[in-house]
Design brief:
The chain is an alpha/beta fold. It folds into two domains: 3-138, Response regulator (Rossmann fold, 3-Layer(aba) Sandwich); 141-207, Orthogonal Bundle (Arc Repressor Mutant, subunit A). Helix content is 53%, strand content 12%. The protein has twelve helices and six strands.
Length: 217
């Protein structure tokens, strides 16, 4: 850890004693301050009186009424990184978290390296899902459910991207503007929670939108 990272203040919002003690032992020596809270009121107190860089929380065990409350927390403190560290999670919950801008998720069964990767990504404003979380995202019945939220035009554009066409080539083929294709791309990425073309194509293969032997990256 660098000296800059040691100036970071972390709040762990969890109610599991063993989780709190394990993370305290692992993280407290590395950062300027490490606090643990077990209630929303306690969390708000720290957010009001301290400059908090990162929140780590198990949204299931903590007393959040719903995932939307996490979204409100994210909006009210956009400068604060947020990592979800939980015992288990479903494909649907990952999508709900992604929709409110929470894209740093690890499981309590993940190893130390995965947790540090998620923390570093959250502090930099980047996305990080642990390997086990990605497995949940990519299992066959997950993406199939997600793919149904795409429009017919968006599915066609996914297939054209898979065929190796550039944005300009797609615009010509579909007789639409370059800007319209870019808008479709942004909407597709947002809906499926992906951030790159290779990630999109992997999703599309798992969802059955394209044949995995006929695509280009």
């Amino acid at each position: 850890m660098t000296n800059t990272k040691r100036q970071i203040s972390v709040v762990l919002a969890d109610t599991q004693f063993l989780t709190n003690e394990a993370l305290r032992a692992m993280l407290a020596p590395l950062y300027r301050a490490f606090y643990t809270v077990s209630t929303k009121a306690g969390l708000q107190q720290y957010l009001q009186k301290e400059s908090i860089s990162l929140i780590i929380t198990d949204y299931i065990l903590f007393d959040f009424d719903s995932i939307s409350e996490l979204g409100d927390l994210r909006k009210s403190h956009p400068e604060t990184g947020l990592v979800v560290l939980t015992n288990s999670i479903t494909h649907l919950k990952i999508k709900e978290l992604n929709d409110i801008g929470i894209r740093n998720i690890v499981l309590k069964t993940d190893d130390q390296e995965e947790i540090f990767h998620a923390i570093d990504a959250a502090l930099k404003g980047k996305k990080y899902y642990s390997g086990d979380v990605l497995d949940i995202l990519l299992k066959k019945d997950g993406p199939l459910e997600d793919a149904t939220i795409l429009t017919t035009s968006e599915i066609e554009i996914v297939r054209l991207i898979a065929g190796g066409l550039s944005t300009k080539e797609i615009a010509v083929k579909k007789h639409i503007s370059f800007h319209t294709v870019m808008t479709h791309r942004k909407n597709i990425f947002r809906k499926l929670g992906v951030s790159s073309s290779p990630e999109l194509l992997m999703y599309a293969i798992k969802a059955g939108l394209i044949d995995n032997i006929e695509y280009h990256i």
